[in-house]
Amino acid sequence: MLQQPAVGGLTRNRRALWWIVGLMLLVVASVVALVLYLQAFESEEEERRRVADGQWLEQSVRFHFNRLEEDLLVLARRSVQPGPSQTRGHVPPKLQGGLLWSQPGAVLAHGWLLHPSTTSRRVSQSHLVAPLLPRWRADQQAHPSNAEALASMLDIAQGLRRSAYAGPMRQPDGSHTAVVWLAMPLFERGELLGNYVAALSLNDCVQGLVPAWFRQNHAVSLVMDGAESARPASPGEATYLAPMNLPGAELFIEVAPLQAQPAMVPRLFLLVALLFLAGMLVALVALRRDMGKRQRVQALLQTQVALRTAMENSVTIGLRAWDRHGTILYVNEAFCRMVGYSSAELVGQTAPFAYWPSGKTEELHAVHQGLMAQGTHTVGVEVQFQHRHGHLVDVLIHEAPLTTAEGEQIGWMSSVMDISERKRAQRLAEQQQDKLEASGRLVAMGEVASTLAHELNQPLGALSSFANGLLNRLRGRSIGLDELEPVVERMARLSDKAGGIIQRVNAFARRRELSRQRLDVAPFLRRTVGGQPEVPGVGLTLHTGDTPAWVDADEMLLEHVVNNLVANAQDWAPRSDRPPQVRVWLEHHPDEQRLALRVADSGPGVPEDQRPHIFSAFFSTKDGGMGMGLAICRSIVEAHHGHLEVSLDSQLGGARFTVWLPMAPMSAAHPTETL
């Protein structure tokens, strides 16, 4: 089947050949259009470059003239603030100025023009304040328009409080000169001190502004008052007229390229296009040979698609594909059977889906948003779907990224497994386990009662002694009311203690609540171990330290754990060649917020193969033991959010049991929890 030739392959080959011929004609037409386009593009690029050069020169002119204005303002301020060296003689202030100030011949003359109403004593006594400069008077008297322009410049500078220009100046015959005047007004505390003016030679300014590298490729000339350029322009030459932007003076700089660049770019593009055309002809031959291979690969791909579809329809795991927006793209037959809807009904749906249970829409919507954000891990997500007929289906969903051939993720691919039978079996096993635990607790009740019986002997015996003594003294009338009250109170406390022991045993057997209280383990341990009956020949040592060790625990149940572990240690300590010893101590671990209560003995220890089973119910290494003591201890410790472990003690050589308990915070509540 995979080797079958494609039907209609010859017709497709001929059609592809015609497409290639048409493509070649289109390439030739594109080459011609490219040549025409590149010619126009070169002209536009030349125009853009010319405008960019002119705009750069325009910005450079404005920048340097602004710098000159700042230099003159600094010079003016220095001139009205004479230093010690300037008070006895005329010493002009020195200034390290900008490009125009340093350009020889750019500044023809400069000095003060005092305002007639100026009353500042400091200005009048300045050695640099002088009457109208000779050049000022000469330009003012040369032509009537000069005087008008200079007067307007002073008015503008005073009124707007900024720099102003006047010019270009005219000669007596009315012709222009390349000279302009600049006025810088100086105010002090709102009072006009005067105008610091300067005569500028525009030709020298332009000569200093335009760098040498710019003049190598451009012709630069000055145009005054909008007049035509004095430089003759060649036919077809494009120029740019850059305004100098001097307020009060209409001046321009004309920029013209000296030589045009040869049009090499269109030729290079044409050569590249011809090379591509030649390569297209070579590729045509190779494409003709490759066409047969492509058809065989296409037929193979179609067969593989059909095979994959058959495989997807045969599996019992549901498959679902959806995009990043949550729209279903594809479902297989197993998924359709699982929810009872057809593929046409599901494809294209968005949340909430038809197979979501009505009472769990919000929960499933949150799960759906999580799947859209990050998919699932290896454990998957367990949810419930609702079949079209109404019954619920437990499913396990695993998500994997759905990516394109380029590696771009476009959605998620889901594998949905029906785990309804497994969930039913799990629930049945949990019920059986609950029954088994209840039976075990009923059996353990007898063991707990026998273990705690000696705890009842002491309060009941003391209670009986107090009652008999009290009765004898009452009969003998040898006791007063003041002595009667303390005895009755002690009898009540002993009665409460006995009742508390019975209640704890009853609660443990019936899975009732246990009472957790804040308890300092150190004095509790000293009190509990101190009340342990002595075993002849077995030494018992206790180390609790001076640091408080607070936990939230049920004191009665925790006392049962300590008594059981110490009794076991005393029982096993003599069963070795070493001197019988039992050691009990506390270890604090503040970094881990927990403490360790350790009980070690010098006995033979717990074999390695028995350690995994020693805390199991009905497992015992004692003759006649029921195997419930350590199991009950483990249950009590775990009810306190701790754990119980056994190991080999390196000092005594026997078994070492460690009770790990979480330490209580500084301000801990006393909750009531279920054992």
Strand order across the largest sheet: 9-8-12-11-10
Structural class: alpha+beta
The helix tally amounts to: 17
Helix proportion range: 40-55%
Instruction: Report the β-strand fraction as a percent range.
Output: 15-25%
> What is the number of independent domains?
4
Strand runs, count: 21
Description of the molecule:
- The protein is an alpha+beta fold and 675 residues long.
- The chain folds into 4 domains: 1-82 and 94-314, no CATH class; 317-418, 2-Layer Sandwich (Beta-Lactamase), CATH 3.30.450; 428-511, Orthogonal Bundle (Helix Hairpins); 514-674, Histidine kinase-like ATPase, C-terminal domain (Heat Shock Protein 90, 2-Layer Sandwich).
- 47% of the residues lie in helices and 20% in strands.
- It has helices at residues 9-79, 99-102, 121-124, 134-142, 144-160, 202-209, 212-217, 264-314, 333-339, 343-346, 361-374, 420-451, 453-475, 481-510, 521-530, 555-572, 629-639; strands spanning 107-114, 164-166, 179-188, 191-201, 218-224, 240-243, 251-257, 318-323, 328-331, 381-386, 392-403, 409-418, 513-515, 517-520, 539-543, 550-553, 581-589, 594-601, 643-648, 655-662, 672-674.
- A 5-stranded antiparallel sheet has the order 9-8-12-11-10, with helices on both faces. Strands 15-17-18-20-19 form a 5-stranded mixed sheet, covered by helices on one side. A 4-stranded antiparallel sheet has the order 1-4-3-2.
- Helix 4 (134-142) crosses helix 5 (144-160) and helix 16 packs antiparallel against helix 17 (629-639).
- It is elongated.
- It starts with 8 loop residues before the first helix and ends with a strand.
- Residues 84-91, 119-131 and 668-675 have low confidence and may be disordered.
